């Protein structure tokens, strides 16, 4: 079971995107028991600064092609280069990060290879299937997250899947492979460059969920953009980050960067406080792995209470001020 | 003058699962969800209409789906589409993104002379965001995904902003090009009253009886449908047959009850809650 992982660089930091490391380790755990290799494929203007980290998480080899013309996401050029790398290795599995880059290129390659691609997988495992031998089982939420579907690609190779950042966990103990890099020859065709990038402006990152131990999130029940300040105050008081449900973002209470859930970020803090969030599957998909969940909601029937560890039935706009007062007292 | 194709999909309203759509066991009754115009596709349609309104041309909206999907084509006519096409055939059922993109790409080739294809970023039922790029691959167009604004356009090129997740990219492309559009791009227009009066009877041909048919034809009320044979498609590449991915298993999500501790709303209760939170907080930090 040979696996290929698409290695992606964060163009702003010049370093690996976390999802590339997460998927390298995932591929390692899928392939190693079956004595398969894990190969990274990278195309870009220059290698990520911390490329070596991939080998500490189970990568056997990295195929790379660097060229100044690949500084930006020229989808068609990336497609041709990565496809050539993949074809040269004939892997069983190809994994992409479900980033705005991965989701741009992966479908082009799957279409071109006439094979299956399963988006946003939350679980991947290899098992025997009928007379097909070992295949990849790809579990993903569908239908707005109301169902979990297991998708297979029984008759085509490679079996392709994308996974969002933060979904696959990294272990504390991990393999340490020797660094092995192979420059991949590409006959670059100028006609692959079809777009002109006039300017690129890094986004100011307002939200950092990755390092947040505590997240306080507000939903529709907060009521207004003005009331949302209570969510910020509670997050500040607890030294945490501010999250939001899709409803809160859609109502304009808070910026989309704060959105947690199926169409936002996936978070796993140690403490998650859901304020005025009913807990539709769309939101739960992004936070239910949190260690302790605290729910404050007017509706005692709200699904959020089904996954919460502590709960209060009441109006967040009355309860949070009281909480803030006691938090100050407790110091 | 540009020939613009918009790819649209009718989807179950998965974002608003309430009331009847929720079964007693906490799972979703998919059949009870209302069918809506996929939200991202409305931004694509708006962008197409805005471009046509300024530089001229034709907006063709195509959708693949059951006859009921004609509803979103009717809405497209209300908003100002010049032409609509319903690609419908039982043989298209259970298509994954590869098979779907094949049918849509062949339709675009059949239309001919297309300069610009616009699609929503993703559909809310599958959330794959794959059909747009896979169509681009098959028709050999340039592609720009996650388009969050249209800055400039004319007969020779367009300039868009792309949400590159960690950065915003300003990209210029000549035609032909396929764009996928996000909700930041624009505000879709309301249906036009005059066009609503003109097309309120629009429907697929089967839904008119013989006595109505000539009036329907002369008033341009018939939403044209295209089946596998009309588009000269390879049956092996359509529907379930043409789909490399198969659904192995489906599980409805049910909530698992946890060890929930409830607190009252009196100040003393809240004080206890804060104490308990602080305890967790000390434990974890």
Notable characteristics:
heterodimer, A: 331 residues, alpha/beta, Rossmann fold, 2 domains, 7-stranded parallel sheet, 5-stranded parallel sheet, 26% strand, B: 285 residues, 9-stranded mixed sheet, two-stranded antiparallel sheet, 7 helices, globular
Describe the protein in words.
The complex is a heterodimer of chains A (331) and B (285). Chain A has eight helices and 16 strands. Chain A is of the alpha/beta class. A seven-stranded parallel β-sheet of chain A has the order 5-9-4-1-2-3-10, with helices on both faces. In chain A, strands 13-12-14-15-16 form a five-stranded parallel β-sheet. In chain A, strands 6-7-8 form a three-stranded antiparallel β-sheet, with no helix packed on it. Helices cover 30% and strands 28% of the residues of chain B. Chain B has a nine-stranded mixed β-sheet with strand order 9-8-7-10-6-1-4-5-13, sandwiched between helices. A two-stranded antiparallel sheet of chain B has the order 2-3. A two-stranded parallel sheet of chain B has the order 11-12. In chain B, α2 packs across α5 and α3 packs across α4. The longest helix of chain B is centred in the last third of the chain and has 18 residues. The mean pLDDT of chain B is 92.
Topology:
The complex is a heterodimer of chains A (331) and B (285).
Chain A: E1 3-6, H1 18-31, E2 38-44, E3 61-66, H2 75-89, E4 93-97, H3 102-113, E5 117-118, E6 123-128, E7 134-142, E8 147-152, E9 159-163, E10 181-183, E11 195-202, E12 214-218, H4 229-237, E13 241-244, H5 246-250, E14 271-275, H6 281-287, E15 292-297, H7 304-307, E16 310-313, H8 316-330
Parallel strand pairs in A: 1-2, 1-4, 2-3, 3-10, 4-9, 5-9, 12-13, 12-14, 14-15, 15-16
Antiparallel strand pairs in A: 6-7, 7-8
Chain B: E1 2-8, E2 10-12, E3 35-37, H1 39-55, E4 57-64, H2 70-79, E5 83-87, H3 97-111, E6 116-120, H4 131-139, E7 142-153, E8 157-163, E9 167-174, E10 177-181, H5 193-199, E11 203-204, H6 210-218, E12 222-223, E13 225-226, E14 246-252, E15 261-263, H7 267-284
Parallel strand pairs in B: 1-4, 1-6, 4-5, 5-13, 6-10, 7-10, 11-12
Antiparallel strand pairs in B: 2-3, 7-8, 8-9
Helix pairs in contact in B: 2-5, 3-4
